[in-house]
Amino acid sequence: MITIRDVELDGVRVTAEDVARVAWEGAQVLVGADAWERVATCRQMVEELVTSGKVVYGVTTGFGKFSDVHISPEDAVQLQANLIRSHACAVGEPLPEPTVRALMMLRANALVKGYSGIRPETLKLLVNCLNAGVHPVIPSQGSLGASGDLAPLSHLALVLMGEGEAFYQGERLSAAEALAKANLQPITLQAKEGLALINGTQAMASIGTLTLVKALRLAKAADMIAALTTEALRGIPAAFDEDVHRVRPYPEQIGVAANLRTLLQGSRLTTEPGEIRVQDAYSLRCLPQVHGATRQVLGYAQEKLAIEINAATDNPLLFVEEGKVISGGNFHGQPIAFAMDFLKIGMSELANISERRTERLVNPALSGLPAFLSHDPGIASGMMILQYVSASLVSENKVLAHPASVDSIPSSANQEDHVSMGTTAARHCDQVVTNVSKVLAIELICAAEAAEFVGAERLAPATRKLYEQLRAIVPPVLTDRSTSAEIEKVAQELLLGDWQASVEAISGPLY
Q: Position of cross-link 5-imidazolinone (Ala-Gly) (predicted)?
C-alpha cells in the first residue's frame, strides 16, 4: 500500500510536486516547531504595535484609500471582520477542490515565514481545515491580481470566521455546519489578521502551480505521441540526429531530440531519406525545435512559481529582528501574470503543431493512408470530425492566449492604480492546458488508428506501450461511433501522467 507523505510547511522549500500531492492526493500538511515560533514572535510585535498606537497600515489604519483613517484599538476586531465580509464578493463557478486545497496550503506556507503577524491559533485553524477536508467555496472570478487575490482569499477567511460556505465530504454547507461536522471552532480575527489572510497571490499561484504540473506532463506526452505519429506516417528520424541539434545548442531542443531518438529506437516503420520521401513536413521534422521551445517556456514558468509559492506577499510586512514594519507591494502579481501568459502561448503552440500532425494522419493526400482512417471509406467517416474538434480547440486557445497581463484597470479610487490581472492569466492558462490535453488525445487516437493500417506490430517498444495503453480504453474504430467520452478519458490519462511513466519504464527516463 502506497503511503502519501506529509508535506511540511516552512515557507522556503515547498515544491510544485508538494502542492500537487496536497491538492490531488490529499496529503496532509504539517508546521514545524521553528515555524510556530516565528509566527508567535511576529504576532507579539503586532500586539505591541496596537498597544503603542503607532500608525501602521491595516493595523491602526483603514485599507486602500482609507489608509489615512485612524482606527482605535477597540475597533480593531470590527475592522478585520468588516474587511473580510466586504471583500468576499467574488463571483463565478467555485474553484475546483484541488485548487482550493493548493490555495489553502500556499496561504499557510506564506504565513509560516513569520512576516504576517497572524496568531498561531488562526494559522492552526487554517491548517486543520485543510487537513480535515473543510474546503471553502471560493468563486473563481473577481481578482485583479493586486493587492493580491483579495476577493478569492476573503472567501477563505470568511470560513475561518464561521461564515460563508464550505464543501465537506462532498456536501456544500454553511461554514458553521462544515466546521462543526469536522469538530473545529471558528475564530474571531484580531488586529492585522484579516489583512494577513487575504493580502497575497495564492489564488493565481495555486492555479498556476497545478496548471504547470499538468503542462509538464503534457509536454512529455506530446513527445511520445509525436513519436507514434512519426511511425504511423513512416517518418524520417534522421532529422532528430544528435549532430543536427548540437550545432543549435538549446538544451531543451537537444533534450526533445534525444527523447524522440529513444522513443523510436527499434521501430520497423520509420524510413530513411529518399525511401518514401526526401524529408518530412515541418510538423514532424521540426519537432525538437517546436516542442523544445515550449519546454523553454515551461522552464521559465517553473522558475517563477518556485519563488512565488515560497514568498511573503503580505502588506505590510513585519521584520521582527530589524524592528521594522514596511508597506510594500509584494502582493503585486506581475511576475506570475507574465509567466502564465507566456505559458499559455507555449502550450497553445504545442497544440497547434499537434493538430497539424492530426491533419496529416487523416488527409489521404498527405498520409497515403485511407481517407480519414476510415475502414469503410464513404460509408464510414472514420476520424474526419476528430480533426474538426482539434481545430476548434486550437482556435479557442488562440483567443485564450491573448495576454491578460497587458491590461490594468485602476481601483480603490486610484490608490491601486496598476494591477496585474495575474489570476485571470492563470485561469485562462488552465483552460488552455485542458484544451491541449484533448488535442493531444485526438492525435493519439488517430495515430493508433493509423498504426492499424501500417502494422502496429512494427512499432518501437516504447511507442508500442503507448499504443497498448490507448487500446485498453479505445478499441479500433472499425465502424463509426461517438468518441467524445473516449477523447475525454484519454485526455485525463495524459494529465495524470501514469501512461508517460509506463512508457518510460520501457524506454528509460526521458527529458
A: 146-148
- Residue 3: predicted pLDDT: 57
**The total number of structural domains that make up the chain:** 2
- Domain span at residue 302 reads 208-507
pLDDT tens per residue across span 279-303: 999 999 999 999 999 999 999 999 9
The residue from 57, 115, 168, 467 that is catalytic is 57
Element containing residue 365 per DSSP (H, E) = helix 364-367
User: Residue 1 domain-assigned?
Assistant: no
Short-list 466, 434, 426, 431, CA closest to 448: 466
Q: Are residues 148 and 24 in the same domain?
A: yes
Q: Are residues 122 and 194 in the same domain?
A: yes
- Nearest to 290, CA basis, from 223, 242, 231: 223
Do 130 and 240 lie in one domain? The reply is no
What's the pLDDT tens digit per position in 346-393? Answer: 999 999 999 999 999 999 999 999 999 999 999 999 999 999 999 999
- Told to judge if 511 belongs to the known catalytic residues of this protein, a careful annotator would answer no
Which letter does DSSP use for residue 6 in this model?
Answer: P
pTM of the model: 0.96
Q: 453 near 231, Cβ under 8 Å? A: no
